[in-house]
Design goal:
This is Retrotransposon gag domain-containing protein. The chain is built from 4 helices and no strands. With 73 residues, the protein is mostly helical.
Length: 73
């Protein structure tokens, strides 16, 4: 039924967000491929239907090293 499908999709979105928090796709800057990191991260955020207004918080959680310093300035 539609209800079961909606519930499954909602569970999938929650799992994606949980995984982003527990196992973020880390980006450090330097030699890391920024385009691949952006594409991968945007895809997950799109699938999880994360609103633009919430994305920056989740994305900043994935930054380390030079990338995090850049973000803070």
């Amino acid at each position: 039924s539609t209800f079961v499908l909606d519930e499954t999709i909602n569970d999938l979105r929650k799992a994606i967000v949980s995984d982003l928090i527990k196992n973020p796709k880390i980006f450090k800057g330097g030699k890391d491929d920024v385009n691949k990191w952006i594409d991968d991260t945007e895809h997950l955020l799109d699938v999880a239907h994360i609103p633009e207004s919430s994305r920056l918080d989740l994305i900043s959680y994935s930054l380390r090293g030079d990338a995090l310093q850049w973000f803070k300035t």
